[in-house]
Specification:
- Chain A is mainly alpha-helical.
- Chain A has one domain: Fumarate reductase/succinate dehydrogenase, transmembrane subunit (3 helical TM bundles of succinate and fumarate reductases, Up-down Bundle), CATH 1.20.1300.
- Chain A is built from 5 helices and no strands.
- Chain A is elongated.
- The N and C termini of chain A lie far apart (70 Å).
- Chain C contains 15 helices and 22 strands.
- Among the domains of chain C are: 119 residues, Flavocytochrome C3, Chain A, domain 1, CATH 3.90.700.10; 97 residues, Fumarate reductase/succinate dehydrogenase flavoprotein-like, C-terminal domain (Methane Monooxygenase Hydroxylase, Chain G, domain 1, Up-down Bundle), CATH 1.20.58.
- In chain D, the strands form 2 sheets. Chain D has a 5-stranded mixed β-sheet. In chain D, strands 6-7 form a two-stranded antiparallel ribbon.
- In chain D, helix 6 packs across helix 9.
- Classes of the chains: A mainly alpha, B mainly alpha, C alpha/beta, D alpha+beta.
- Chains in contact: A-B, A-C, A-D, B-C, B-D, C-D.
- Chains C and D meet through helix 1, helix 3, helix 4 and helix 9 of C and helix 1, helix 2 and helix 3 of D.
- Bound molecules: flavin-adenine dinucleotide, iron/sulfur cluster (SF4), FE3-S4 cluster and FE2/S2 (inorganic) cluster (FES).
- FE3-S4 cluster binds next to helix 8 and helix 9 of chain D.
- Chain B: It holds the Pfam family Fumarate_red_C.
Chain lengths: 131, 131, 594, 246
């Protein structure tokens, strides 16, 4: 029987606020970076320079060192490594759900945990370098 | 009430193979897989940079191996595909309004691509400066 | 059989039913009454036919307009067969109801300053039709449905097919319904019952109505002795799409669309609606903005003279909107553009739309008094199924959406009031009537006859179209009446192919056909006996082409007769506010007080 | 007249068929024959037991949704002329099938009702008095903001298109969330605060992964995907505000 009454709108258990806005915020920021900054990063760092199309000196040790361990370097790490990591984690987590793999909780810990771990690694690396 | 017999097929894990639209969706979600590879490359680079010139050289050589270039090329394509899909979503998620009218979505998409190009040019300038 | 006690039962989830339900709930709240309100509908409420209404809803709104003017238009539009006290009540309450709709969120189209916009409509002196683009009914129905969700006291039984009302000692006692999902019957004992089951346009082959508009409620009341009143007045809408009958709203003409025949000539000027108005300057009550009956009759004349074009097998004339321009069309008439594109592959921006008249509205219906109550105590009717007496011999476009609100509300309030003062009827008498329904359904399932409902339905809609069409003459009507009676006999010998209980849509259609046959008889009988031409009822016989106030300024009332043919009586019309005068449009109507 | 083969998924549990099966029919058709016309032909000429819903046959009542070749469509608005080869017709996906092409819409309606889809405004109901017949003011620009989202006919096609609803029927789904957003955007409404808790849930806006197919199949161009995802922005804002307010 269909009743026209609305569902229970109390702040009961099933009305719990999702923590998703946090992950979605990181996902979106990471998505923008993935779309805007990452293509250029891949193009130069992983394609043109290794393939020798752009001068082999572009990533000389000293040059790379000074470029990375600097304020712009930190920004680079944030925008091209950390945020995209969370973007990827979010999509992988939902992808696992889409493929009905794992459990909600486990997937969350694994993906966001992984992204957090790698981000910390990157930042620690940066810290070591700059000191 | 008489018992109602209904048939409720559960969605199978391979649901996304059943419609071209869903395949495209999965492709979009999968763009993060090569991205993760590229991000791991960067992390490896960061740590080899910390370990000195020799190890850095080793990383550069690693980046030159054809397989790595191939996967990163995939990552590059993935990043552009991602950008293409992501830019279309943006005006729908955050429609910008000016003078009582919503800004035409195409204009916003175009603006975002313009951003990508600017970043490319900027990257070219950074990497090739003084070469 | 499940049984429940419900104070107020509302049959029908269209505009009238929903408005009644909300009014009943409001009314009960105000008076601190604990009442159970149950709305039953054979489709989910938002699927009801009100959803298809396009053009708009009328109410006196602007400074230049007056209640008197709306009154005069409605009475003249109905060719003086409207109950004038009822019309008076209606015009006084219409505006309030439309404002109420706005307050519930209905997205009426607006002027730049944020106030509500009105548009022109046929037969109305001034622009007074509120609209929500060209999906007025859609927005109204969804607003009402969604608003009804706010009231926990409104319970619903969606997809329940009401089979009959129960009457004990001259008062309504409940309803018996079939749960479509299971095929089970349910008996609702009730203190008040409101019928809001919509019109009966599906009696005709070519119509603008949804498949569910089969007049069930009319037949139920009819079988219990309530008169069906003024059933001979069936409105043909001049602009339906050929083939499907899908409606192209009158608002097209309100916005300035013109009608031309196959030679590109604006033929309406030859039918007392001229002189020709300037392109892009529509003028109320002239040419294309004449009333629907006149326009449909003009089509028929053109067709007889061979000046109509062809679209597929249909004779058509053309509705030209091109001069309005793409932008305006897409803003004001987006749905029309979509419909023409999808259904006949015509882009109104570039080509004229081929159209032809189609049955659209049932002016007559369940006879009620001015308070929506029928001659069965506690049984109310509102909306298109009712004949409260508003439309007379011809309804003006955009009056009926307002009617749903004004009289839906009144019925709801009255029903709530009554439910507070009476007790439930004795349930043994009720159970007997419920049992009779059970047997009726069981018989249908078991019947091994050789008739098939599809065949009967086809014959019915065809004969109604030929016999009771835009123009009528005695021989045709007599043939149709005989045919209907023959069909009624054959109906008793029907057989179902689908024997399942759950979602037996074939059973549903069979039942609807059964109801339809009764109403068809009333319609045809009324038409046959009304030996004059008035409003939508147009006789072809030489001596019957004029209105005859001496003999027929009267409502027809048709009564059911279980033993034999239905009976017709005549009833006086309330004309205490405006004496019958000539009904004229175009320049001819200029000097006349209307 | 040429004919077309229609494969219709039948489900007749009362006849002892507890799983659906396919049945073929050959239908005469021309340029104007819709899928709904074809179903009506089957019912009237070939097999009276075929069950499906329909009413307005003009794409506005929302009752005739079916899967046509695996894509959710309104039967009355899809034409046989547009399909090459045989046409496969099945009940809308992701809903329990009751009989043939008829699905159980109950959950859909519950979801709609859950978001309080009506105007919430403190100002006194004019229902109470004869006077005070004033409308709210709303400029065309203010209306423009929600107008598109108010065009939903509750056909449910978007639910059949949305794999997230398929995976989790608790997900409020595109149409319900669109309706919530429609009222939140209405300049006359003050009920956003009451609606947000539903949207903030995991099964509110947050189950959507922007598959976007919902908008692709929507027969009324409502763009539910946009509404749901704008709802995410609102929900995120709501969380931030909650944090600042403590
Ligand atoms: C295409 C079209 C356009 C129109 N445009 C306009 C316009 O612009 N302006 C205007 O003023 N008017 C217009 N009209 C007329 C107006 O829309 C109708 O008169 C009005 O909507 C009827 O509303 P209702 O509530 O009486 O009935 P409906 O909306 O038809 O509702 C009837 C209800 O009764 C239920 N019902 C019926 N039988 C049973 C049963 N046996 N058991 C259970 N439930 C049952 C149905 O399920 C339904 O819910 C238009 C009509 C059409 C056809
Ligand atoms: S949003 Fe579109 S597809 Fe979904 S129910 Fe509404 S009209 Fe149908
Ligand atoms: S398809 Fe589903 S996942 Fe979101 S964008 Fe539409 S609701
Ligand atoms: S029959 Fe109403 S939408 Fe198709």
């Amino acid at each position: 029987m269909n009743k026209g009454t609305s569902l229970n709108n109390d702040a009961s258990e099933n009305m719990r606020r999702s923590d998703e806005p946090i992950w979605w915020g990181l996902f979106s920021a990471g998505g923008v970076c993935f779309a805007v900054f990452v293509p250029a990063a891949i193009l130069f760092i992983a394609l043109l320079i290794p393939a020798g199309i752009v001068g082999p000196d572009a990533l000389r040790f000293e040059r790379a060192h000074s470029m990375v361990f600097s304020l712009p370097g930190l920004i680079f790490i944030g925008m091209v490594i950390c945020l995209p990591l969370f973007h990827a984690a979010h999509r992988i987590r939902h992808g696992l759900h889409d493929l009905k793999l794992g459990t909600e909780h486990l997937n969350k810990v694994a993906t966001y945990g992984g992204a957090a771990l790698l981000s910390v690694l990157a930042l620690v690396g940066f810290a070591i370098g700059i000191l | 009430m008489a018992k109602r017999t209904s048939y409720f097929p559960e969605l199978k894990r391979n649901w996304w193979l059943k419609h071209p639209y869903f395949k495209k969706y999965m492709a979009r979600e999968a763009t993060v897989l090569p991205l993760v590879f590229f991000l791991l490359c960067l992390l490896a680079g960061l740590y080899s940079l910390l370990q000195g010139a020799e190890s850095w050289q080793g990383w550069l050589t690693f980046m030159q191996s054809p397989l790595v270039i191939a996967v990163n090329a995939l990552a590059f394509i993935a990043s552009l595909f991602h950008a293409w899909t992501f830019f279309q979503l943006f005006p729908r998620v955050m429609p910008l309004r000016a003078g009582g009218r919503t800004l035409p979505p195409n204009l916003m998409v175009l603006g975002q691509w313009f951003g990508v190009v600017v970043v490319m040019v900027l990257a070219a300038w950074i990497f090739m400066r003084g070469l | 059989m499940r049984e429940q006690d419900i104070d107020i039962v509302i049959v029908g989830g269209g505009g009238a039913g929903l408005r009644a339900a909300i009014a009943a709930a409001e009314s009960a709240r105000k008076e601190h009454r604990q009442q159970r309100i149950m709305l039953l509908s054979k489709v989910y409420p938002m699927r009801s036919h009100t959803v298809s209404a396009e053009g708009g809803a009328a109410a006196v709104t602007s400074e230049e307009d007056s209640l008197q003017a709306h009154f005069d238009d409605t009475v003249a539009g109905g060719d003086w067969l409207a109950e004038q006290g009822v019309v008076d009540y209606f015009i006084r309450h219409a505006h309030r109801e439309l404002v109420q709709m706005e307050r519930w969120g209905c997205p009426w189209s607006r002027k730049p300053d944020g106030s509500v916009q009105v548009r022109r409509f046929g037969g109305m002196k001034t622009a007074r039709t509120w609209f929500a683009a060209d999906k007025t009914g859609f927005h109204m129905l969804h607003t009402l449905f969604q608003t009804s969700l706010k009231y926990p006291e409104i319970e619903r039984l969606d997809e329940y097919f009401v089979l009959d009302i129960a009457v004990v000692a001259g008062a309504v006692a409940g309803v018996i319904a079939l749960e479509i999902a299971t095929g089970e019957l349910i008996l609702l004992r009730a203190k008040s019952v409101i019928l809001a089951t919509g019109g009966a346009g599906r009696l005709f082959r070519f119509n603008t109505n949804a498949g569910i508009v089969t007049g069930d409620g009319m037949a139920m009341a009819f079988r219990h002795g309530v008169a069906l009143r003024d059933m001979e007045f069936v409105q043909y809408h001049p602009t339906g799409l050929p083939g499907s009958g899908v409606l192209i709203t009158e608002a097209c003409r309100g916005e300035g669309g013109i009608l031309v025949n196959k030679d590109g000539y604006r033929y309406l000027q030859d039918y007392g609606l001229g002189p020709e108005t300037l392109l892009g300057h529509p003028q109320n009550k002239y040419m294309e903005l004449g009333p629907r009956d006149k326009l449909s009759q003009a089509f028929w004349q053109e067709q007889q003279s061979g000046r109509t074009g062809k679209f597929g097998d249909s004779d058509v004339v053309y509705l030209d909107l091109r001069h309005l321009g793409k932008e305006y069309l897409h803003e004001r008439l987006p749905f029309i553009c979509e419909l023409a594109n999808v259904f006949i592959n015509v882009d109104p921006v570039k080509e004229p739309i081929p159209i032809r008249p189609a049955v659209h509205y049932t002016m007559g219906g369940i006879e009620t008094d001015a308070h929506c109550e029928t001659r069965i105590k506690g049984l109310y009717a509102a909306g298109e199924c009712a004949s409260v007496g508003l439309h007379g011999a011809n309804r003006l476009g955009s009056n009926s959406l307002s009617e749903l609100l004004v009289f839906g509300r009144l019925a709801g309030e009255e029903a709530s009031q009554r439910a507070a003062t009476v007790t439930f009827a004795d349930s043994t008498a009720l159970k007997e009537q419920a049992q009779a329904q059970k047997i009726r359904i069981a018989k249908l399932y078991d019947a091994e006859g050789e008739e098939n409902w599809v065949e009967l339905k086809r014959e019915l809609v065809l004969t109604m179209e030929t016999g009771c069409g835009i123009y009528r003459e005695v021989a045709g009507m007599q043939t149709t009446l005989d045919m209907i009676r023959d069909l009624q006999t054959r109906y008793r010998n029907i057989r179902l192919q689908d024997k399942s209980r759950a979602y037996n849509t074939e059973l549903m259609q069979c039942l609807e056909l059964g109801y339809g046959l009764d109403i068809a008889e009333a319609t045809c009988l009324g038409a046959l006996e009304r030996k004059e031409s008035r409003g939508a009822h147009k006789r072809l016989e030489e001596d019957l082409q004029q209105r005859d106030d001496v003999n027929y300024l009267k409502h027809s009332q048709v009564f059911f007769n279980a033993e034999g043919p239905a009976q017709l009586r005549w009833q006086d019309v309330d004309t205490h506010l405006s004496a019958p005068a000539e009904r004229a449009y175009g320049d001819a109507g200029k000097g006349i007080k209307q | 007249m040429t004919t077309k083969r229609l494969s219709i998924q039948r489900y007749l549990p009362e006849q002892g068929n507890n799983t659906p099966y396919w049945q073929d029919f050959d239908i005469p058709f021309d340029d104007s024959t819709s899928v709904l016309d074809a179903l009506n032909y089957v019912k009237e000429e070939l097999d009276g037991s075929l069950s499906y819903r329909w009413s307005c046959r003009m794409a506005i009542c929302g009752s005739c949704g079916v899967m046509v070749n695996n894509t959710p469509k309104l039967g009355c608005q899809s034409f046989l002329r547009d399909y090459e080869g045989p046409v496969k017709i099945a009940p809308l996906a992701h809903f329990p099938v009751e009989k043939d092409l008829i699905i159980d819409m109950g959950l859909f309606l519950d979801h709609l009702a859950a978001v309080q889809p009506y105007l919430i405004n403190d100002s006194r109901l004019i229902n109470d008095s004869e006077e005070g017949t004033e409308t709210f003011k709303q400029t065309p620009a203010q209306m423009e903001k929600y107008k598109q989202f108010a065009g939903c006919i509750n056909c449910g096609l978007c639910y059949s298109a949305c794999p997230q609803f398929g995976l989790n029927p608790e997900f409020l789904g595109p149409a319900a969330l669109t309706l919530a957003h429609r009222y939140n955007l209405d300049s006359r409404d003050q009920g956003k605060k009451q609606r947000m808790p539903q949207m903030n849930r995991e099964e509110g806006v947050w189950s959507c992964t922007f598959v976007g197919f919902c908008s692709e199949v929507c027969p009324k161009n409502v763009d539910p995907a946009a509404a749901v995802n704008q709802g995410k922005v609102e929900s995120a804002k709501d969380m931030l505000i909650g944090i600042f307010k403590g």
